[in-house]
Amino acid sequence: MRFTYVLNVIAQDAEELASRLRVIGEPVWLSPSRAFDIGFDGDPTAVLGEMRATLNDAAADISVVATQGRKKKLLVSDMESTIIDCECLDELAAIAGIGPKIAAITERAMRGEIAFEGALRQRVGLLKGLPLTALEQVWQERVHLIPGAKELVATMKANGAHTLLVSGGFTYFTSRVSQALGFDEYQSNVLNDDGTALTGTVGEPILGREAKLEALARALRKLGLDASEALAVGDGANDLAMIQRAGMGVAYHAKPVVAAAAGASVAHNDLKALLYLQGYREEEIVS
User: Fold this and answer.
1) What DSSP letter does each residue of 64-79 carry, written as one string?
2) How many CB atoms lie within 10 A of CB 189?
3) pLDDT digits over 5-40, tens only?
4) Residues with Cβ < 8 Å from 143, sequence gap 6 or more?
5) Residues 266 and 252: beta-carbon distance below 8 Å
6) For position 6, what pLDDT does the model report?
């Protein structure tokens, strides 16, 4: 039987969850004991709500995914707290001794309480005079890839997808992360310096929410793809426009405003979850 939608469930121990959902069908395992699909026809919103209510005590990521065009041809990903486990500007601030002051502004911007562009200028201004050696220190000591990042990029590229890293962070870091993972392209902001220290300014125009959306649109035009063929993922308010535009928009360990508005949300698992959402089986994942 062909289904229009599948209920996708990802959890560290999914066997018991599968048994509770057999009322709607037999699970098709994507990863043993971790990720499965159950096919169904009907109202996806109603089924998703019912199944989330059924499993509301479980640390599981539960989504409804259309079966047509499930494996995407374009990945557009945020970087900080999505591909890497930190906010680089906050780490620079910690070295400068003003961590809490800048982190508070970052948090408000990521929750959508203040405009990203103004918040970025304000935070960068506080870093004026910070030696450029601090950037290398952050890169070497504080930037770590989130589990599943390598598999996500490698598997999608192996299946013909184009990959774009788009960040409200800085080219110093995006260039290195992009190279480490093999992204096809990256776009981000430029920290201005005088050759030895930061000047407290950022290159204009600033890449924020609308610029991320335009980066997605530009990639679609360049590749001749429809938005339905794209996967966009991020965690902050400045990612929301591109997440909502993409055929598969995923909020990854995201702020509440983002998780509530995204088509899919991953709150309990690592980035391999984005491959299971696309229907990749464990044996298809490139490690």
Assistant:
1) EEESTT-S-SEEEE--
2) 24
3) 999 999 998 999 999 998 788 999 999 999 999 998
4) 84, 85, 86, 88, 91, 173, 176, 177
5) yes
6) 95
29 CB neighbour count, 10 Å cutoff: 16
Q: Are 247 and 67 in contact (CB under 8 A)?
A: no
Name residue 284's amino acid: E
- Is 246:231 a contact under the CB 8 Å cutoff? yes
In a 13 Å sphere around the CA of 116, the CA atoms on its Cβ side amount to 21
Tell me the pLDDT band of 154, cut-offs 50, 70 and 90: very high
| Exposure class string for 212-235: b at 16+ Cβ within 10 A, else e | bbebbeebbeeeebebebbbbbbb
Q: What is the tens place of the pLDDT at every residue in 254-273?
A: 988 899 999 999 999 999 99
pTM: 0.95
pLDDT digits (tens, 9 = 90+) for 237-250: 999 999 999 999 99
Structure tokens at 166: 């788009």
Burial of 106 (0-12, 13-18, 19+ CB in 10 A): buried
| Summary mean pLDDT of the chain | 95
Please calculate the CA angle 96-102-103 and round it to the nearest 5 degrees: 115
